[in-house]
């Protein structure tokens, strides 16, 4: 009877130890995930303005806008026919103002970056 009691006590002790080790490792994992910073990629963006030449009618800005929007990394394009200025928001990690200006120039509307 004493041997059975010892085996039972030893078995119970092992179960308690195993359970507490599992609980500790789960708590540790939860704590580590709670402390880990939430890192998200932040998209950078820049803005550039371009003087556009040879726009003679109200449909010319549409051609300029389409050409500039085809450039990878360009997010938005606004073209003002009256001032002949295009304002572009783009990702500088993907494209440059030179590439954006070239897109307009290549469809017949020479573009040059303006300084603010």
- The fraction of residues in strands falls at 15-25%
Structural class: alpha+beta
- Kindly report the CATH topology of the largest domain: Alpha-Beta Plaits
- What's the structural domain tally? 2
How are the strands of the largest sheet arranged?
2-3-1-4
Helix content: 40-55%
Radius of gyration: 33 Å
CATH architecture of the largest domain: 2-Layer Sandwich
Q: For the record, what CATH class of the largest domain applies?
A: Alpha Beta
* Average pLDDT level: 82
Largest sheet: 4 strands, antiparallel
Oligomer: single chain
Q: Please provide the ordered H/E string of secondary-structure elements.
A: HEHEEHE
Low-confidence segments, given as residue ranges, are none
State the shape: rod-shaped
Beta strands, count: 4
Distance between the first and last residues' Cα: 93 Å
| Total DSSP helices | 3
Structure in words:
The chain is of the alpha+beta class. The protein folds into two domains: 1-39; 46-114, 2-Layer Sandwich (Alpha-Beta Plaits). The chain is built from three helices and four strands; from the N terminus they run H-E-H-E-E-H-E. It has helices at residues 2-35, 60-69, 97-106, and strands spanning 46-52, 74-80, 85-90, 111-114. The chain has a four-stranded antiparallel beta sheet with strand order 2-3-1-4, with helices on one face. A hairpin with a 4-residue loop joins strand 2 (74-80) and strand 3 (85-90). Helix 2 (60-69) crosses helix 3. It is rod-shaped, with a radius of gyration of 33 Å. The N and C termini lie far apart (93 Å). The mean pLDDT is 82.
């Amino acid at each position: 009877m004493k041997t059975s009691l010892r085996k039972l006590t030893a078995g119970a002790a092992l179960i308690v130890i195993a359970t507490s080790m599992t609980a500790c490792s789960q708590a540790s994992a939860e704590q580590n995930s709670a402390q880990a910073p939430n890192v998200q990629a932040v998209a950078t963006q820049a803005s550039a303005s371009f003087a556009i030449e040879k726009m003679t009618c109200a449909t010319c800005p549409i051609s300029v806008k389409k050409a500039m929007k085809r450039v990878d990394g360009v997010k938005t394009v606004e073209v003002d026919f009256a001032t002949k200025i295009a304002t572009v928001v783009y990702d500088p990690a993907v494209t440059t103002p030179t590439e954006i200006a070239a897109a307009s120039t290549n469809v017949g509307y020479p573009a040059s970056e303006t300084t603010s």
